[in-house]
Amino acid sequence: MKQSLVFIPTTKEVPSDTEAVSHQLLLRGGFIRQEMGGVFMYLPLAYRVLQKIQTIMEEEMENISCPETLMPVILPASLWKRSGRYKNYGPELFKLQDRSERELILGPTHEESYIDVVKSTWNSYKDFPKTLYQIQTKFRDELRPRFGLLRNKEFIMLDGYSFGGSQADLDYSYEQFNQAFRRIFDRSGLDYISVVADNGAMGGQESTEFQAVADIGEDDVAYVGEERSGANMEVAQGIPTFQVNEVFEEPGELTKVATPNAKTVVEVGEFFKTDLAKIVKSILYYADDKPVLVVAPGDHEINEMKLSNGLAAKELRLATHEEVQNLLGVQIGSIGPIGISEQVKVVMDPSVTHLHNFYVGANEDGYHYQNVNYDRDFTVDEQFDLININEGDLEPKTKQPYHIEQSIEIGHIFKLGTFYSEGLGATFLDQDGKEQPIIMGSYGIGVSRLIAAIVEQNNDENGIIWPKTVTPYDVHVIEINNQDETIVKTAEKLEEEITNSGHSVLLDDRDARAGVKFAESDLFGFPLRVVVGKKAQEGIVEIKERRTGEVHEIELSQVVKFIRDFYNK
Predict the structure, then answer these.
(1) Are 316 and 285 in contact (CB under 8 A)?
(2) pLDDT tens for each residue of 12-23
(3) Angstrom distance (rounded) from CA 300 to CA 328
(4) Sign, CA torsion 558/561/563/565
(5) What are the boundaries of each domain within the chain?
(6) Residue 173 burial (CB < 10 Å; 0-12/13-18/19+)?
(7) Could you tell me if 201 and 89 are in contact, meaning their C-beta atoms sit under 8 angstroms apart?
(8) Is the pLDDT of residue 204 over 70?
(9) CATH domain 241-383 topology
(10) Where would I find the H helices in 188-320?
């Protein structure tokens, strides 16, 4: 393919609000353009990457005997109302009406559609296990789309579904998709971690996320060991280092101390010259409009997902300054659990029981208590894990220290169980002739998100470095001078020979300076660059490997062999 005929609108300038390296490089390289916030055009180079990724996915789905389908984008709201998700999914759900005022949605995912279509056909235990999948555009009305292709209102997704008549069926399909997804990520050249995760709005029993390590990632994952087994920070449990190193202290005398201008954990810690863990913080929340005081060690952050799940709360929010003042008569920064109003439910992270003679707010502006000890000085209504782990905290089973990395969620698999089949009346007859709900699994990969994740992990100061399996073109052939007949004919002959050998070629035939061509070639990031220059008359061309920067002078007769050997490594 001649580059002069391909639409590649490169640019040196990118919007100042583009934080992600992948966003910047894909814009600069002319791979994508933004139509509106959270909605992108996939231009020729990006579309070729999409096609490569989708081909890998189709092959791996074929390997687990999972047939491909395609569901509608526009869905009846009635189906989602029956499952309960129309109300519970939240403001990210795109809602609309047709001219007959029928309520519709733009599909963010398709669990309801799949269970609804199979329930009238697969109604015996003999029909299972079965699977289906699609690769399709999805829609979610993100409040703050960001990071280019990483968080969008419109995106491309592989979503697969399994249907079974027993837990064994579900376990089998879950593992099949688990292994298929790993092969997809491996073949796409990604460095990833699989972690235990929260099911969120999907519901169900169990789920695993696949996370690509990246500095721009919106998630944090905690893992241990060389195998990097772990969990999303939303659900990771750990033993704080202060608990591991616990030293018993005789209880000191409870004393109220004036702490002027010390409100934050750090300020109070500096005032008392003590570890932040011993500054036990108390934060007021409202869970389903009921006040809850959360008590936790000062060196760990509150995990609102754990807190919400522990309270079985549909809605959770921080109390405002005014609400704290009206309910407790004190400002934020001086709240504590001692003598708290009976109107307030008090919950605490269990790790606080391993602290001795610690410090809490005195429920009086500008004062804290010192030498506080749980059970002697205050009690709580409930204890459960409600904090984020810190780097170095221990994993409970292995007792190994956690490492924490920023990451991008690239895939998620769920054991949904009967969550959707019960809501939509999808049943089958078991071996005893009894009616049972179909047992379901759901499996998703963000296809367009993979492009960004790959670029985040494969780039340098000059541009993108595509893995061999997903590169838009295998080889970039560059004519140094398109006015030189020998150079032009040699480049065109190479394009033909390389293409006939089974490798894709982009031939830069433009009338542009060599420096411009080389800079753009590095920006595009194809694995190999073949430069046809002055030595073409001697039957010699230069081949540069993008990833290593290694340069080779190769005879024309050996170019195809070199490329073949490179791609067979």
Answers:
(1) yes
(2) 888 888 989 999
(3) 24
(4) negative
(5) 17-211+408-455, 241-383, 471-568
(6) buried
(7) yes
(8) no
(9) YbaK protein (3.90.960)
(10) 241-244, 265-272, 304-311
Q: What is the CATH number of domain 17-211+408-455?
A: 3.30.930.10
What sign for the dihedral angle of Cα 444, 447, 449, 455?
Answer: positive
Select from 395, 563, 479 the least CA-distant residue to 3.
479
Q: Could you give the residue ranges of the DSSP H alpha helices within 340-443?
A: 419-423
CA-to-CA dists, residue 250 to 154, 187, 279, 378, angstroms: 60, 59, 18, 17
Q: What is the pLDDT of residue 206?
A: 80
Contact 465, 547 (CB under 8 A): yes
Say what percent of the chain tops pLDDT 90. Answer: 90
Chain segment 78-102, per-residue pLDDT in tens: 999 999 999 888 899 999 999 999 9
**pLDDT value at residue 17:** 84
What is d(CA 512, CA 482) in angstroms, rounded to the nearest whole number?
9
Which pTM was predicted?
0.89
Give 447-464 pLDDT, tens digit per residue: 999 999 999 999 999 999
Phi and psi, residue 28, nearest 5°: -60, -40
Q: Which residue has the tokens 């089949």?
A: 421
- 471-568 CATH, one of 3.30.1360.40, 3.20.20.70, 2.40.50.140, 3.40.50.800: 3.40.50.800
At 167, give phi and psi (nearest 5°). Answer: -65, -35
Q: Dump pLDDT digits (tens) for 338-375.
A: 999 999 999 999 999 999 999 999 999 999 999 999 99
The sign of the CA dihedral 370, 373, 377, 380 is positive
Instruction: Assess whether pLDDT exceeds 70 at residue 122.
Output: yes
Q: What whole-number distance in Å separates Cα of residue 95 and Cα of residue 89?
A: 11
Q: Exposed (0-12), middle (13-18) or buried (19+): which is 446, by Cβ within 10 Å?
A: buried
